[in-house]
């Protein structure tokens, strides 16, 4: 019985080339395209491709923002390639801040695992949505909108966030303006922020122009 | 200056009807469609619509599987409607098991927050991918494939999972077969499981037929 | 007139490289990605790429399930690559059964061409939907849900099915559990099926572990 | 055991409102939107919603084209709403013709069930792809391209076609030009077909203007 | 001949309810959803629904930014609902500036119709892309990234922009920060901009908090 | 401060391989796939990749249709690859005509920049939508439907069109029929246009068969 059953279904799987089936673990050595990275040869895929330990260690928060973002996007975690999901870890020491930023290609869902976090976003109508989240609370940040997270408690805070894309992107407002070579004159023209303020922040963050 | 600037942009926002902008918080009282629920009137949307506390409390694991799944899909958390993401909380007491199941409409990403979890999935080629995950580890389960989670440690385990859809669906294999009115004769014909086994499991889980 | 008209439109088509236009016949020798296979050079595409005769011959039903599934997914029929559609042929001898299975990546539409077929699926709420279909009847199986087809008549049955993806995937429940190396202990833990039953079915279907 | 198991999962399904789960059978009495019709109340959905007998009867081919198209789009078959798939039946008497047409919103896959069919399509580069298909052969027509089917055998021909959308649309070239109120002057200007020819075909097909 | 031909195809169009066909003109009086507004009754749709004159008149640039943005999103131009495209008109007097902003839900393509425009955007890697565009030049701004347009010539500039969504959204950085009730303390914490600067810009733009 | 801040975020960008971030400029030398061309190495991308001057020059309208279409699809303008948008320029001398055509893969939005244009399309129900557009007016043509543009004024007309895809395709009806090798007999059978008319137009446009 075993042999006969196998025969009938063998035709489904005895193909002469690797089939695109169920998943597409990223192969960083082949070309990528608008939908993500090329797929690793399925014959070489193992369980290890679908798990990632890079978020198990706390990020180093001994810095000016007293916070750390550790991404597990497709570029770090090849198993999520093409699956429409990815993750990151947020560590916030007391007074830690994840500065105002956007994810151009995804909505974000945050879950607080330790501590207390004040989070917020602004919509296209300039409405501000603020929440103080306790352990176990979740919050969603719609795609592409400016948002932030602040440790509003007295102890270390830890959150995991997930994204509706394997490649959400991350544009940190201050870095876009003040850690880039965005010409100061253009920044002042397009933001109304004084040149002196721009130059000061560029000096701190490493921008030029 | 303030007045003039406002005037020029006023035209953008002085619309006579509510615009579909940035998000679509679910309105459970209006019709839903293939893309999700109708949108709540934006004028009534507040920060509370984007946060959810339903995952902050541990699920009750005093049951036969010693585990609990608490969903935060669009039906529970209206803020995720239309955003392509949702979440759930998994509580597993020692020996706790989330039985074999699929999410027909989404891939899943799991992060272990407490304890140790053995998780796995099977692909279309009948390959089994198993991983033992420690605190902070993440794992992804490609869309629609059978998968499970087991507490493989000695203490309570806690995980948060997120999905690539606001409405991932959840089909628990045992419930589909043995907690439904799926006729026993059809189950035996389509699974090769003996009628006696089917009847026994139906008696336990509450199935009929 | 002919010459002038040609001149004006020539600019549209005198490109120095092959354009992605209208279709993307699979090139199995190039990398594939999350959206499908790379495209065959359009200059080499012919009408033969868009037709397939692999479903013209009845599958061999001289086996334990008295049935055969013959796929025309992108891996067999390169013309459907990227077009969001594919097909398969179902042959069912009297008493033939297509065992319980899912397509993780597509909805399915079946049309009965010969004989009588009893088909059904189970949804996330454990509701079972059963229909007996006569020649010419069609039925749809929503994406990712467990479903089956049985020859419920006295003669050979033939059906053609189509899918809402060029690569729907196919997970046969019994094969996932009993024709794989899914450890018996994990199967019993995650399905409540006795180890003895699991071992017996593994022996029949060729599973290990 | 039965009771306890039920309790733990009850929280998943004891929602106070109908959830968008797994499918969205069309409710023609509620508003429709870009993604399809509103969903019928899941509590009223039965197996009958997922099956359709409208393609079981041969279309009437006693007409000038000696052919008939019988659609099973979402408007006829509410079960396919939102599932990205639909179907139609083609009956072609000897010499029957399905005139040149497009489906603006879907690719099409045809399977010949009886007789012989000559089918073809034209791409953006004005390349013509022609195939003569025998019983059991399949052919795919990429989205939006002009295509046709002709009975090229001596007997009645029957084909079933499926589409990569629940609402593929159908634009028959001759009807768009000659069964509409498209002003004759504009037709001649935009097609180079003589006014006399246009008027003659309008007289036959019922066009005006 | 005319009558018979009509009969055979009548079955396609003699449906008892309005079908979702080809387009979905927005009905602002019915519920909207994640995919856009509900569809206007097709029987009431006319050519006027697909055209819009709101961009024919120059916006008023007698203001502090010497510029005006006039949108033709689905909320203004109901014909684009569900079609994945929309538009806007940019008028820039000499020295006019469209301040730094994002479209959370769409990529943008700009064409210069009059004058000279300097445009730029910043990517997730803090790279700045700047171009000076002359009449007839086009430029694309990838989805969700900060960008701006400045009149870099000596005369009035006019540009038309289109978007890859009927509802691209528009988040103007300065308005999000300084024309909202975003608490000053949170702005300083999440942007490193001094409170004094924040307060000054809020006074100008009308922000509170 | 500058150094420390940089350190904490460095982990985000110190990846060992180029990440798919924000955009995917087409690399015409690598394979393409269903979602578009492969991505150019981000390290080599400059502002020039996102701008295009090919639409700045008027097309040559000294031809039989007194019109010209100049495309800026992904094949001409690699910066739009994967961004879901593209453009084209329409030049129409007095009496100029863009013949009846479809874009199989995109909706189109037209803006009149100079002159007066009469445009129209036909839907699946054979309804014709006609509008005379003045300077600054916009019109949308739903995906895949037959449409045209005619200079209805006394002077040169100029329009820019954009598409909801980087690769909309372009099927010109007359070219598909009469500039191809579509056999005359099949054309007459599938369009009811007399063979003599077909042959005459083929002679003009260069068709064979």
Automatic annotation (TrEMBL), chains A, B, C, D, E, F:
Assigned keywords, A-Z: Apoplast, Disulfide bond, Glycoprotein, Manganese, Metal-binding, Receptor, Secreted, Signal
Alphabetical list of SUPFAM superfamilies matching this protein: RmlC-like cupins (SSF51182)
Main location per the UniProt record: secreted
Annotated oxalate binding sites: 103, 108
Residue intervals of the Cupin type-1 domain: 53-199
InterPro entries, per the entry: Cupin_1 (IPR006045), Germin (IPR001929), Germin_Mn-BS (IPR019780), RmlC-like_jellyroll (IPR014710), RmlC_Cupin_sf (IPR011051)
GO molecular function annotations of the record: manganese ion binding
One annotated Gene Ontology cellular component of this protein: apoplast
Binding site for Mn(2+): 101, 103, 108, 147
Protein's cellular compartments: Secreted, Extracellular space, Apoplast
PROSITE patterns the record matches: GERMIN
Disulfide pattern: 24-39
Membrane spanning stretches: none
Signal peptide range in chain numbering: 1-18
Family: Belongs to the germin family.
Protein name: Germin-like protein
